[in-house]
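User: Assemble these into one structure.

Assistant: Restating your components, then the assembled model:
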Amino acid sequence: MANILVIAEMAPDGKVRKSTHSAITFARNAGGTFSILVLGQGAKAAAAEITGYGAQKVLVCDDAYLANPIVERFAPTVAAVAKNGFDVIAVTASSFGKDLAPRVAAKLGAGYAPDISGVKDEGGKLVYRRPVFAGNAYGNCTLNTAVQVVSARQSEFSAAEPSGGSSPIEDVALAAKDAAAERVEFVGLDAAKSERPDLGEARVIVSGGRALKEKFAEVLDPLANMLGAAVGASRAACDAGYAPAELQVGQTGRVVAPRLYFAIGISGAIQHLAGMKGSKTIVAINKDPDAPIFQVADYGLVADLFNAVPELVTELKKATA
Amino acid sequence: MKILVPLKRVADPDNANKVKVNAGKIETTGLEWKPNPFDEYAVETALRLTENGANPKARLGEVVVVTFGPKETESTLRQALATGADKAIRIDATDDQLDGDVVARALKALVEKEKPDVVLAGKQAVDGDSNQVGQLLAEYLGWPQATFAGSIKSEDDKSLLVGREVDGGTINVRVGLPAVVSVDLRIVAPTSVSSKHSPAHKYPEGVRFAALMAIMAAKKKPLTEMKLADLVSDAALKITYTGFELPPARKAGIKVASVPELVEKLKSEAKVL
């Protein structure tokens, strides 16, 4: 049975990111025992949020050195803690997790299974399932090292719910600093400011393509507001400047799997499908009846989106009144 | 500035929905090979950093491209040479000898021989989608890393100001050289890359194509071969794939005729409203 170390990710507001709950679900699914390591400035306060998830311990490294997400600063401490008897080091495959995990694996001489979508214990050996070829195939893999590192895809491991109990909190020391970290200076974060839910956590996503042109927000915002949805975008819409880059869903951008996904004016390039094919219900609205998006849509509507979306808002109001 | 760019050939990503699985293995016969798109972006970025965009024929730095594979992968290298790279290295290996970790360890040994200022890599190959070699290499070298770069400004070739595209925004970091940078797709937007040679050049969107003359000339550029064993003494792989399968097919969808019908289906059939 594996002893798993889950790496929590902190948000700039000093809380543990919700995405961390997917790595906790991975740990539960893998079986065995797990502890959670929270690193960052203010980690001690944040740790209190996650003592009710069944971890043996919540380990805390609270240090101003870890104020910003510079992985060269995080990796030495993660690796040092990992050496205290952990078999698997798990992080959610957010941009932070994907940045950090290989660096930790290299430090530990561990094998790394990136962006996994499932885990199974087969006769004491963990078998990881992961999407390849933009989600057009799945590979089952095992790691040939005693210590293993994984990143878990947020859209495939649902957020863990509290399980009760209260894990003891224990401080861990900051490990010796890496020389490489001295050559990285954090200049700043240009954060997208939005009142909407995060794409990775939203139950409903309304995504738009290039066909929306300059009316991207004008057309989609009322629908998103109505549904309490996050707004996403295709690569083409981002490249053309109709939507900001951080809204992009796809191989570049975010991988999402909401309960309900609207693809509006999106043709359905492989690049985009890779990011949303796991959604439970997919609705496509496009005026081209041959658009590839209709091949993955549960409900397709061939229509001019500039008429159909406002009508949809009106009909939804009626239906949910 | 000297830049090393690792390249991988992948099955044509535009045909990725035609991926076939045969007896638990990915069927590669009949697939057309193309350079990994993110690696092509890395080559373009490297060229932009080592030229004046207004006069790209005059090379103001050196770009070395490297790939791992059998003899036929030299065509991937020749393509990069034709677009402007200066020198190429093929590390002879077969796919079953390679995983991301072996590649990173071999690149470490190669970096120690070639001594580039920057390793510029694609953020991931679109076949394995692993997103790991740049980070592994950086750690093995003890270098800083800047992953998912959407913009790079070279500051007098001593440091790079990198805009990293992360969940929810952009993180700007300054990395002192030498460093490993992995690029995302917006790095090939017209003004994403700048340097002292070319502070404000506006490039066409995307990667450059090779002119016929350049394709001919590329045949004379240096391309050397090395053995994997020359670079790594421990050839053990860290990951083993036991099988591949296609994703479960989605239930065939339906077309609805009107918006009211769509809303009705979402409410009473899919029950998502």
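Chain B has one domain: 2-269.
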